[in-house]
Design goal:
Chain A is mainly α. In chain A, 70% of the residues lie in helices and 1% in strands. Chain A is built from 15 helices and 2 strands. Chain A has a two-stranded antiparallel sheet. Chain B has one domain: ABC transporter involved in vitamin B12 uptake, BtuC. Chain B is 75% helix and 3% strand. Chain B is built from 11 helices and 2 strands. In chain B, strands 1-2 form a two-stranded antiparallel sheet. In chain B, a hairpin with a 2-residue loop joins β1 and β2. The chains are: A mainly alpha (353), B mainly alpha (288). Chains A and B meet through α4, α5, α11 and α13 of A and α3, α4, α9 and α11 of B.
Chain lengths: 353, 288
Amino acid sequence: MTSTRKRFAVAAGVLAAVLAVLVPILPGLDDEFTVSVLTGSAISAYLASSWNVQGGLTGQLSFAHGLFFGAGAYGAAAFQVRHGWNPILGGLVGVVAAVLMALVIGYVCFRSGLSHLYFALATTAFAEIGLYLAGSWHFIGGVEGLTLPFDVGGAELRFDDSRIYYWIFVALTVLVLLGTVLLKRRKLGLYMQCVRENEQTAAAVGISILRVKLIAMMISAALTAVGGMLYAQYIRFLDPSSMLGWTITLQMIVLPAIIGGARATLGPVIGAIIYVVLREETRVYFSYTGASLIALGVVVCVIVLLIPKGVVPFATEVGAKFSGRRKKPDVDGSPPRDEAPTGLATPVGSGRS
Amino acid sequence: MLTLIQSVLTGGMVGGLYAIMSVGLTLTFGVVRIVNFAHGAFVMMASYLAWLAYQNWGMDPFVAAIPITALFLVIGIGFYVGFLQRLSKFDTLAQVLFTVAIAFILQGFATGQWGPDPQVVAPSYSLDVVHIGSISLPLIRIIAFAIGLAATAALWLLLTYTDFGRSVRASVADRGAAQMIGIKPSRVQAITTGIGVACAGLAGAILAPISSVSPTVYTDYTFIAFIVIILGGLGSFFGAFFGGLIIGITEALGQTYLDGGIAHALTFAMFIVIVVVRPNGLAVRRTA
């Protein structure tokens, strides 16, 4: 029964991937608006999937990812503007900075065993500190922001054809998804899911919770920073409120992952597509300035009330029902079933794509 | 020294408003067990209403505070009946997301309706200053502090000496037992949410002449309120009050002696230290 669901999930994944790659090269669909919507979706899909290593797989609701995103973006941009470095080099500095920040933030928070709510609030506080400090840091442009040079080429990650950014982010997203699937099959990934499901039990069987959480956060931070590095070249203007702000972090990274379903590997991708398409379409169809935020708010409210698990797990369940399975779909946190190899792995390993 | 006293006093006065705002949040959390991330958005909407009343009818913000508070009491009850009642059965994550989404809707509405630029309410006496010895305090802040203090005191009396107050405190202390002795949880929760949102409304209306209002200002208010109630201990009435004063004073001191952005960062740094070192608040006594 698990294999049916897995096959369904894999089919859905392949379909989504094929569509994602094909759509922009179909004739007639290469206008600027479509390309920007698709690129936005791909960026958000990548960032949300990167967040998901920590937020979904390990179950730690981090609101600090704006910092990691900003570290990558500012690392690439600031060294380029001030010292003429290649953005990949500066971006690497940013990635290292992001990993170190994740280590410090994670250590402080995990060490004191904060509950989910407190962890979310504390990571928010770290992000806000970063936001305000960035505003008075002149090297990275302060509140006035930083504009990147136009007159550079592909070696500096600067492409005139904006579709290239789309492909880069699609490729990165596919890599992260593959990585997530592989990670889930390895011991570390299993540990992460154990920590998410039940920390006490995980600790009781000898998993070092602090270590697993820290590794998840550092992986997630590094991936997010890589996204920031490329995003800086795509957007070419950075200022603290559009890079590091709490609402930006929520809208670009956290909410797409949760709309789609943070527990499903594909969830963040689907969530990102839903969110970005919604945002851009409402922006075009309604002249009302706040329309896209209102639409996002309404969609999140509806999803939370009706399908709190998110779109992808919901769709998988519906799909499984229609594919003629007689067995009831398992519910989150359901007690381990008999046929499972270990009690611990059951609630997490059972076929969520 | 004089500057120090001056900034402690001006900070403490805004702190009185933070206190009433946070008391609203902590009451809702204590009774309904919901983390309301939309709290700051309600504060923001109240500020906008005070601004509209001033702009259209020249109404004094302190006068406008009365109908606004009443209106927000009703809105709060509606908010509970409409959403929170269902939501209280969900986990924390769902509550956070839902209330964040409500805040986004209000932010979108405010942006569309009144634009992204900050708006200011400046009544004729907005620059008046009261001199006490060689210390000078802005009149508006004194009035605001007095109202904040009076509202907190009134709320305390309500909670301590009325039947409703007793049932609220009973629900905070032990929900099951409260239910068993005949306290209707949904009624208490609805009115408490109403009062909580009314506190946000009052704080918002009175903050309007003190600080400008813009569609994104609410995140600051939400986080200030969270910092305050965690400082004072989640669910604690007096904790929230003193937490408000502490945050107001910290902010003022930071703005006097440090750069504005650094001062803001300092408040959040303090928050992290408290969450990590004393997660139950500085004063761990449950009063409300």
